[in-house]
Amino acid sequence: MLVNLNKYTSYFISIMLLSSCGFMPISSSHEINIKIDEGIPMHFAEKLQRTFNNNEQSDLEIFIKNYDLKKYEVYGGNALRSLEAEIKLTISININHKGAHKRNKQIMSMKRYKTNELNPFAQDEMVKLLIREMEDDLIQQFILEVNLIDM
After folding, report:
1. H helices within the chain, ranges in order?
2. Parallel, antiparallel, or unpaired: how do β-strands 60-74 and 84-97 relate?
């Protein structure tokens, strides 16, 4: 009898914890007014516009600017080429919620990779793939910022 009571009590507690934890998956179905600077590459601007529903009458206005991609190479030893490189991608966003508050944020993504690839074309393709992954990471961070504003 006591074992059954503990079993039911543990089920009840676990159900209560799961139902009241407030878990909400991050979604991108918000209607916001996105304004994108001309300095942002077209493929990244298209990704952003596909992610969000653009609505001119929305209370939330976001201006995206300063797409900055920097590459830093690390040299070491007696090698003529760099051993590894670091790519840093940053964008600046201005979030304006009508009647509430303004925020200026800078979102960054950084990746490191080995540069001792013998095929330079393969290395160039790897860098392009890393940049696409970093752009997707920036969009996920952007979605998180929008969700934090809406809460």
Report:
1. 2-20, 42-51, 120-150
2. antiparallel
Q: What is the pLDDT of residues 93-151, one digit of tens each?
A: 988 877 677 888 899 999 998 888 888 899 899 999 999 999 999 999 988 887 777 66
Architecture of the domain made up of 30-150: 2-Layer Sandwich (3.30)
- The DSSP result for 21-49, as a single string, is S---------EEEEEE-TTS-HHHHHHHH
Which distant-in-sequence residues (6+ apart) come within 8 Å of 54 by Cβ?
31, 32, 33, 34
Look at strands 31-36 and 53-54 and give their pairing: parallel
- Residue 71 β-bridge partners: 87
The answer to whether 88 and 110 have CB atoms below 8 angstroms apart is yes
Tokens of 80: 């003529």
CA dihedral 125, 129, 132, 133 (to 10 degrees): -160
